[in-house]
Write a structure and sequence with these properties.
Radius of gyration: 20 Å
Shape: globular
Largest sheet: 8 strands, mixed
Helix content: 25-40%
Order of helices and strands: EHEHEEHEHHEHEHEHEHEEEHEEEH
Structural class: alpha/beta
Distance between the termini: 34 Å
Number of strands: 15
Number of helices: 11
C-alpha cells in the first residue's frame, strides 16, 4: 500500500481527497494535516464522510515525511510554498493543488501571485501535472503541481489545436462559469445564499490567473514537443453561477488557418484516443446539449466539444468538468497513480451523478 497524507483536510478539496483515497485499493490514508481543526476527525468536518480512520487533523512538521509516501497539499498557495520548502527533499512525493508552483515564469508568477514567495530553484523542479499531456514526465516525479480547475478545462480544450494540429491562434477569448465551491470555504458576503442564488456574477471580468497559467504551460509544451502551434493572445472572463459544483469554459478561437468541422472533430478524437478521462463529445448527441457540468458531476471526466463557426470566422471549444474532482482531488489521485506506475484510472472509475 502507498501511504498517503492530506494537508488542508478540512477544506472542500481536502474532503474530496479523503473520499477518494479511502476508496482507493492501493492508497492508505495515514496522515491528516492542517492548522485549524486540530484534533478533529474527518466525520466531524465532512458530513458525507462517516468513516472511522483512527486519524485526526494534526499540525504539519518535518516528522510527516516518515509517515507518508505521497502528501497532497490542498492548501492556500502561500502555505504550499512554505511546506514545499520544508519537505521537498525529505522523501515524500508532493502533489500541490494550489497555485504556488503552476506558473514557471517568475515575472508572470509575481504578477498573478504577488503574495506567494517561493524558492526559484524549487519552482523549476515542479512538474505541471496535466496527465493527458505530459504523462511520461509524471512517472517517478517527486514534485507535482496540479493545474487549476479552469486551467485544466482550458488546456484540455485548446491542446489539440496547438499541440495537435499545430495551428497558430491569433486570439482566444474565454468565457468561464463556475459554481460556488470553486471559491473554497472562505466566507465572503457575495457568496452568501441571498446574493449567490440565481446569480451570474462577473468576479473576474477582465482577467484570470488560470488563463496566464495555460499560456505559460502551452508555450513550454510547444517548445518541448517541437510543434509549431502558438497562441498570440489568450484572455478570460470568469463568472460565478448559483450551482455548487462544476464549471464550463467556452473558448472562442480566431485563426487564419483553413479548417472545417470534420477536420476538427477528427483531430480531437485522434489527440485524445486512449485517454480515458477526456470524452470528446458532439454537442447534440444526448437529450441535453453537452458539454454540461451536470453531466460530469462526481466524476474525473472532462467533456470537450469543438465546433466550427464559418459565419463568425471562429472555432468554439467547450469544456466541462467537476471542479472538485477532475479540477482538483480526482486529478491529484490520477497523477499519483501515474507517478507510482498504477493504471491511472485506479480508484477513479465512478460514473457521473445525474441529475444533481
Amino acid at each position: 500500500m502507498i501511504r498517503a497524507g492530506v494537508v488542508g483536510a478540512s477544506g472542500l478539496a481536502g474532503g474530496e481527497l479523503i473520499r477518494l483515497i479511502t476508496q482507493h485499493p492501493e492508497l492508505e490514508l495515514t496522515f491528516l494535516g492542517g492548522s485549524s481543526n486540530i484534533g478533529r476527525r474527518p466525520a466531524e468536518l465532512h458530513a458525507n464522510l462517516r468513516v472511522d480512520l483512527g486519524l485526526t487533523v494534526q499540525p504539519v512538521t518535518e516528522e510527516v515525511a516518515g509517515q507518508v509516501d505521497v502528501l497532497f497539499l490542498a492548501t492556500p498557495a502561500p502555505v504550499s510554498a512554505q511546506l514545499a520548502e520544508l519537505l521537498a527533499d525529505r522523501g515524500p512525493t508532493l502533489v500541490d493543488l494550489s497555485g504556488a508552483f503552476r506558473i514557471r515564469t517568475p515575472e508572470l508568477h509575481d504578477r498573478w501571485y504577488p503574495k506567494v514567495r517561493r524558492l526559484p530553484e524549487l519552482a523549476d523542479r515542479f512538474v505541471y501535472g496535466v496527465p493527458e499531456l505530459i504523462r511520461d514526465q509524471l512517472v517517478g516525479a517527486p514534485l507535482i503541481s496540479l493545474p487549476g480547475c479552469y486551467a485544466t478545462a482550458l488546456t484540455l480544450g485548446l491542446a489539440p489545436l496547438t499541440l495537435g494540429l499545430g495551428l497558430d491562434l491569433k486570439t482566444v477569448v474565454v468565457d468561464g462559469k463556475s459554481g460556488s465551491s470553486g471559491g473554497g470555504l472562505h466566507l465572503r458576503t457575495a457568496d452568501l445564499h441571498p446574493f449567490r442564488s440565481g446569480a451570474i456574477a462577473p468576479y473576474a471580468p477582465t482577467g484570470h490567473r488560470h488563463a496566464a497559467e495555460v499560456g505559460d504551460f502551452l508555450a513550454r509544451a510547444k517548445s518541448d514537443s517541437g510543434t509549431s502551434g502558438s497562441i498570440a493572445s489568450l484572455s478570460m472572463s470568469a463568472y460565478g453561477v448559483s450551482h455548487v459544483r462544476g464549471l464550463l469554459t467556452s473558448s472562442y478561437v480566431f485563426t487564419d488557418a483553413e479548417v472545417d468541422q470534420r477536420e476538427l472533430q477528427r483531430a480531437y478524437l485522434r489527440f485524445y484516443k486512449g485517454n480515458r478521462f477526456v470524452r470528446v463529445r458532439r454537442n447534440n448527441e444526448t437529450l441535453i446539449p453537452v458539454p454540461d457540468p451536470q453531466a460530469v458531476l462526481g466524476s474525473n471526466y472532462c467533456d470537450v466539444t469543438v465546433l466550427h463557426d464559418p459565419e463568425g470566422g471562429r472555432i468554439v471549444v467547450l469544456s466541462a468538468l467537476d471542479n472538485l474532482v477532475k479540477g482538483a482531488a480526482g486529478q491529484a489521485v490520477q497523477v499519483a497513480n501515474i507517478r507510482y506506475g498504477l493504471p491511472e484510472e485506479t480508484g477513479l472509475t465512478m460514473q457521473p451523478v445525474m441529475p444533481a
